[in-house]
Amino acid sequence: MIRILIADDHAIVRRGLKQIIEDNGEMRVVAEAESGIDALRKIREIDCDVVLLDISMPDMSGIDVLKQIHSERPQLPILILSIYPEDQYATRLIKAGAAGYMTKESAPSEVVKALLRVAGGKKYISPAVAEMLANELGTDEKKLPHQILSDREYQIFLLLASAKTVTEIADSLALSVKTISTYRSRILEKMNLHNNAELMRYAVDNHLAQ
Question: Which of 21, 82, 154, 177 stands 20 to 30 A from 60 (CA)?
């Protein structure tokens, strides 16, 4: 029996995923976590074979949770299930150690297929993500401005592009307003942009706006 840990801050989502997973008969949900810190604690306490992780988590972002899990237990497969389209986060998270990436619009049967695949030691990569990864190989000199951002900078870039204020971003990431303002300045400088309006236009033009 494959043991699954679900980390998602919405109880109704966890309930639905548990039903989908356990209807399969080959898998069992052994733990649920409602925050990033809760997920890390339970992973350290409870044996599981796969982590199904949302990247939008309170108190600690799923990106940071992914990196911490991968650091502590590099052999533990982590399947990302996110509201964000593949072209916003998939390649970054797979490079950071995720075994696969899928959106919450995926069919239940595809979620089961992905979990079984990563539990078997393989990667779950959709054709679209495979193409994006292939396009990034050997193209460092041709990277677009948003592709040179660090993972944290890119996360904040997307939040700014969604019209969130510095204060809202600081609250959601449990960081200070000063820290977010510093990141914003660094992002604008790296991308050769001058203000949030230009940043949002860039996101729209490059199909990165949610």
Answer: 21
pLDDT at 126: 83
pLDDT band of residue 139 (cuts 50, 70, 90) is low
* pLDDT confidence of residue 20: 95
Amino acid at position 150, single letter? S
Q: In what order do the strands lie in the sheet with 27-33?
A: 27-33, 2-7, 50-53, 78-82, 100-103
**What are 201-208's contacts with CB under 8 Å, separation 24+?**
202/145, 202/146, 202/161, 203/157, 203/158, 203/161, 206/144, 206/146, 207/87, 208/87, 208/88, 208/146, 208/158, 208/161
Sign for the pseudo-dihedral over CA of 21, 27, 28, 29: negative
Query: Per-residue pLDDT tens for 27-47?
Result: 999 999 999 899 999 999 999
